[in-house]
Amino acid sequence: MKKFGHFDDARKEYVIQSPRTPYPWINYLGTQAFFSLISNTAGGYSFYKDARLRRITRYRYNNVPIDMGGRYFYINENGTVWNPGWSPVKTELDEYECRHGMGYTVITGKKNGLKAEVTFFVPQDYDGEVQQVVLTNESGEAKSFKLFSFAEWCLWDAQDDCTNFQRNFSTGRVEVEGSTIYHKTEYRDRRDHFAFYTVNDSIDGYDTDRDSFIGLYNGFGDPQAVIDGKATNSFADGWSPIASHYKEITLQPGESKTLVFILGYVEMPVDQKFEADGVTINKVKAHAMIEKYNTPEKVAAGLAELRAAWDKLLGIFNVDTPDDKVNRMVNIWNQYQCMVTFNLSRSASYFESGIGRGMGFRDSNQDILGFVHQIPDRARQRLIDLAATQLEDGGCYHQYQPLTKKGNSDIGGDFSDDPLWMILSVGAYIKETGDWSILDELVPYDNDDSKAKPMLDHLTVSFYHIVNNLGPHGLPLAMRADWNDCINLSCFSDTPGESFQTYTSPKFAAEGGYSKVAESVMVAALFTYVGPTYVGILKHLGKADEAAAAQAEIDKMKKNVMESAFDGEWFIRAYDAFGKKMGSSECEEGKIFIEPQGFAVMSEIGKEEGADIKTLNSVDRYLNTQYGLVLNNPAFTKYYVQYGEISTYPGGYKENAGIFTHNNAWIICAEAYAGRGDKAFEYYSKIAPAFNEEISDLHKTEPYVYGQMIAGKDASRFGEGKNSWLTGTAAWNMVAISQYIIGVQPDFDGLRVDPSIPHEWDGFTATRKFRGATYQITVKNPEHVCKGVKKLTVDGKEIEGVIVPVFEGGEHTVEVLLGC
Ligand code: BGC
Ligand code: NOJ
Q: Sign of torsion, CA 19 24 25 31?
């Protein structure tokens, strides 16, 4: 078992010490409009707002070898060719290091006494990636060498770029002005944006045509121009435009040279696109952008500003627990991942190609749970954008496109869980901010302003969308699918190429496209978990009758679940389209599923009969493994046409008995809720990435961020992680550790402080900024219990209960004594 680097918590960085990580370990640059993905060897790409429609540089997914395409610097010193990030040339370096930090990455390579340190970042409010290269001669002799930069342009639409070659091999256009290479494909015609790549120094040549620079039969690892030690000054005309600067450099012993490169994106008003000749790009905006970061001093200031912005964001919630790994997850990496996931939803990672999905309705709503305390204003806007794609009956478009903010009609709606997540996220927003005005905000249905209603109305139709769509057992219809969109109970797909998500069997055409028998117990449990938030909102607004009516629906649902969906030791998963139980002890395979259990426990369904503890014990007994909780057990070994996609995966992968980290969090929350802090923490530490750092060679993906899945016990690669970065796991595990284990949970009327921790902990401290005030929280655990607040004082005064009041501002001391 092996690790490939270490955490540097003081600098909020992960330091990678070998370029041969078990998978490319990446970072994200940019948080507003211009984004880049960057691996530990500088692979990756950039885009503006939308990874599909506005891709700036080209990337090759699933390539051989992996991770091909990036921003590369090549050095040729007397025929020895190398990259500071080792790849793509892969000349063995004397020293290598990659530091992934908060919104920046620093890659340093050293070869034969020449050190190259490259800092990559996207400054705040800036549509470009700044790359600062510091070259230092650490040898005792003068050194002369050649430096080449390299970026390959994407012809904007990433999908078209990798498919429509008959056209796009003949569209590429560039311009060169001094040390700046402009990419202007289609700018004259239908686009009002272009990109540029520049360096703040004179150059000795350039290339803009890929085949001239690389050579038709060479690769990124042996570009002909670099090997020849000279740029060809090629001018792209169709084919594949690139941007490469060439510079001859001599450094005396101990001497350093700093160059600043910028890869930028510019949008121009239509009437100002060209200079007077009507052909040459109007570069006024580009020049201003270049000016902004054209010296090392400006770069240092930009970096300092970025660091300060992150320090502020990460300063809102901090803990100091007896466990360093918890501290680094909570204070740094989990929060960082929440921000990245919020920004990108599921669009662009090393597992999401950026041309697939738009923003998911359920995904984005859940992302808000982990993110809302960082930038509530952006959460508010997102909630409004999401609600605007809802339909009048409470159903929702499953996805929307970030550029247009319109619901995606190709995918459509009818996913049974979608509306509920919005109640949860709007509730989380109000609990965090106390901003009840969001409920009065007029938000369209179906993006149609004439159908605008207050946000509260959106919550009401969401709630009643469940109530109005029940099946034979009074449980919510599964419709096309629920949260687990691999359980497609209405699908019955037996034809290759059909989408499990969008296909509803003609068999159910008369019933409206999905089975009116298949019911989701997970949605039932989610309804009873989320419902009280809706009731709480109504009560706060003084709508007592509506609150009572909603509560009655919740109570009825709980009863229905106990009557028809409690299997004796756990909750079943669903009724399928034949009306048969799924996830029951009666089943041959897939006897127990994880998804309904946590929500049912937290809703206290059947608590008086001990259903909660029985359920948690069953989860432990049947789903718990060395590396986390599997989604279902036993794994499916056959294809069940009535279940769909879930049974297509080999056992142990993805939704078929993989360790799906997203829903592990629901059990962590439930264990903590039930007061079993030891179990909650056991599950937390099995999947939290920092705890898996020591087994990085097995775990494979980045030890600083969650992945969607870890292969389950049925898989030959048990313990191997996949699909890192963009996953609801980030938000839910942030909720699990901060609100359930650490137990600091915003509520409508204050901050609930009710920890559920491992009994060994002597206590911990936490700082929480909340509605303008700062709470300094100290928790003491002299009796070594897991849960139970014995005494709670606020500013020295003991209070009743566990809800710390809201203050106008200032700093407040909260002291919590745990015990029996
Ligand atoms: C994946 C799911 C994903 C779904 C929607 C499925 O193929 O297995 O994890 O949620 O696609 O894109
Ligand atoms: C990933 C998707 O993004 C999410 O929406 C879904 O709920 C899970 N997969 C489970 O299938």
A: positive
pLDDT digits (tens, 9 = 90+) for 370-392: 999 999 999 999 999 999 999 99
Distance 236 CA to ligand 2 centre (A): 42
CA of 694 to the centre of ligand 2 (A): 28
Q: How far apart are CA 16 and CA 737, in angstroms?
A: 26
Closest CA to ligand 2's atom 10: 484
**Ligand 1 atom 5, closest CA:** 485
Q: What is the pLDDT of residues 158-195, one digit of tens each?
A: 999 999 999 999 999 999 999 999 999 999 999 999 99
Using omega within 30 degrees of 0 as the cis cutoff, is the peptide bond preceding 65 cis? yes
**420 contacts 526 by C-beta, under 8 angstroms:** yes
Ligand 2 centroid – CA 728 distance (Å): 8
Dihedral sign for Cα 707, 488, 159, 215, please. Answer: positive
User: 310, 319, 302: which is closest to 375 by C-alpha?
Assistant: 310
Neighbours of 275 (CB within 10 A): 12
pTM score, whole prediction? 0.97
Residues 6 or more apart whose CB falls under 8 angstroms from that of 509 comprise: none
d(CA 515, CA 478): 8
Identity of the residue numbered 12: K
Give the type of residue at 368.
I
190: number of Cβ within 10 Å: 6
The pLDDT tens digits for 249-277 are: 999 999 999 999 999 999 999 999 999 99
Which residues does the annotation mark as catalytic?
Answer: 485
